[in-house]
Design a protein that fits this description.
Length: about 110
């Protein structure tokens, strides 16, 4: 089965965490931690910084590995390395998402 390696940013500000609503594709309208595929030759942190810059036009720092989530889709196996990080600036510019929200950890969406 094909393996797909991706990264996700759990962006923290004070006691809030950023989620983003997918704009297009099979999962359009669903909420996620932003991120994307690791390209050949990239480290996970390099991919994370690039993806967040491309998707939200922000810079992240203080990236700390949190967990890797694995999931078998019908056509591929997903490895998603998740990193807790902070942002250097706002505002965001949404390119791949239709909305963002800051949530407390005890909130559900």
């Amino acid at each position: 089965m094909k393996k797909v390696n991706v990264v996700a940013a759990i962006i923290k500000k004070d006691n809030l965490y950023l989620i983003a609503q997918r704009l297009k594709g099979d999962f359009a309208g669903l909420w996620e931690f932003p991120g994307g595929k690791i390209e050949e030759g990239e480290s996970p942190v390099q991919a994370l910084k690039r993806e967040i810059r491309e998707e939200l036009n922000i810079e992240i720092y203080n990236e700390t590995y949190f967990v890797t989530i694995q999931y078998d889709y019908p056509t591929f196996h997903l490895n998603m390395a998740c990193y807790i990080c902070e942002i250097k600036k706002e505002p965001f510019h949404l390119y791949d998402h239709s909305a963002i929200q800051w949530l407390r950890i005890d909130e559900e969406k």
